[in-house]
């Protein structure tokens, strides 16, 4: 047909023979019943972190978690609560339990427990919060919070850690589906963890989400085939990592900020979306970013390739 979106869709269909998108990897499907559980009474809310179509995410003190070397009766954690009986929301919640329950890597937030009534998942949290806000604070614009600008080496470290986490998830045949700086966490020891979608304060008014087919989607981070056909795969996660690299380089700028959502959507549909400017990126990272944002999934690198390229830059002492 000559339509790049249809060509991408065909490529994804072939890729899916090798990968089970949106679901757990090989073996028995994970279940909510397989997870450590906590009672509703054990969760003490601290503050709201974000809310979306089907629930909210909040910071809480959770009692009764048996964590190695914790040494405390309560653990500060992130709690994602499902506030809907919608089948799609239930399936997405189960998918995230699968993803974070199966993952076991220092660069991926741990699923600590689930609460069955009401349905909630308890996830690891970090002391500096989400990466998007961390990047924006590092610009030095906030008069109350003094923070030194990130060095090139620190930016690369962030990108390498995200790539390490995604190598692990993709090796488990797990697809994130909403990878962005806002959905990663940072701690004071400079470690970064990939976390769950939903950390934006309010997706209804957030510039990061766009209503499409009665759902709110992270349009500016989505690969063309994901927008056109809803095809999420490891290759669409690679596209999202490309945008995340750009976010790190620009200290949390909004992708395609000069375009309205509808303009971005039409440009993606027509295949005319102009590449993100890479002026703020190191030359090596700029080339990798462009490969990650290749229109066809076939032309995007694998996550091991992404990690290799980033690690090579990090080891270059001339940077």
Automatic annotation (TrEMBL):
It comes from the Eukaryota. PROSITE patterns: PROTEIN_KINASE_DOM (PS50011), PROTEIN_KINASE_TYR (PS00109). The active site is at 178 (proton acceptor). Pfam families: PK_Tyr_Ser-Thr (PF07714). ATP binds at residue 182. Residues 43-311 form the Protein kinase domain. Keywords: ATP-binding, Magnesium, Metal-binding, Nucleotide-binding. Gene3D superfamilies: Phosphorylase Kinase, domain 1, Transferase(Phosphotransferase) domain 1. The keyword Protein biosynthesis does not apply. GO terms for molecular function: ATP binding; metal ion binding; transmembrane receptor protein tyrosine kinase activity. Mg(2+) binds at residue 183. The keyword Nucleus does not apply. This is Protein kinase domain-containing protein. It comes from Petromyzon marinus.
């Amino acid at each position: 047909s000559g339509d790049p979106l249809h060509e991408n869709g065909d490529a994804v269909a072939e890729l899916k023979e090798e990968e089970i998108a949106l679901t757990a990897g090989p073996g028995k499907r994970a279940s909510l019943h397989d997870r450590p559980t906590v009672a509703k009474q054990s969760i003490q809310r601290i503050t709201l972190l974000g809310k979306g179509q089907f629930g909210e995410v909040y910071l809480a003190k959770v009692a009764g978690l048996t964590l190695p070397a914790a040494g405390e009766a309560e653990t500060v954690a992130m709690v994602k609560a499902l506030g809907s009986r919608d089948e799609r929301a239930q399936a997405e919640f189960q998918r995230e339990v699968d993803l974070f329950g199966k993952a076991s890597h220092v660069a991926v937030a741990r699923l600590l427990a689930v609460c069955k009534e009401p349905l909630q998942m308890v996830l690891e949290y970090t002391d500096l919060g989400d990466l998007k806000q961390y990047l924006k604070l590092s610009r030095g614009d906030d008069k109350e919070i003094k923070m030194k600008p990130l060095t090139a080496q620190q930016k690369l470290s962030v990108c390498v850690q995200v790539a390490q986490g995604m190598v692990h998830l993709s090796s488990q045949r797990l697809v994130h589906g909403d990878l962005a700086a806002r959905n990663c966490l940072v701690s004071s020891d400079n470690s970064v963890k990939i976390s769950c979608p939903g950390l934006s304060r309010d997706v209804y008014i957030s510039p990061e989400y766009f209503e499409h087919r009665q759902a709110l989607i992270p349009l500016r981070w989505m690969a063309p085939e994901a927008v056109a056909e809803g095809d999420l795969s490891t290759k669409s996660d690679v596209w999202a990592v490309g945008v995340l690299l750009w976010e790190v380089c620009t200290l949390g700028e909004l992708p395609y900020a000069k375009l309205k959502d509808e303009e971005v959507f039409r440009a993606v549909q027509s295949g005319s979306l102009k590449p993100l400017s890479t002026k703020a990126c190191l030359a090596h990272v700029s080339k990798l970013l462009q490969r990650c944002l290749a229109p066809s999934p076939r032309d995007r690198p694998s996550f091991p390739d992404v990690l290799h390229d980033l690690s090579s830059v990090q080891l270059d002492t001339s940077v």
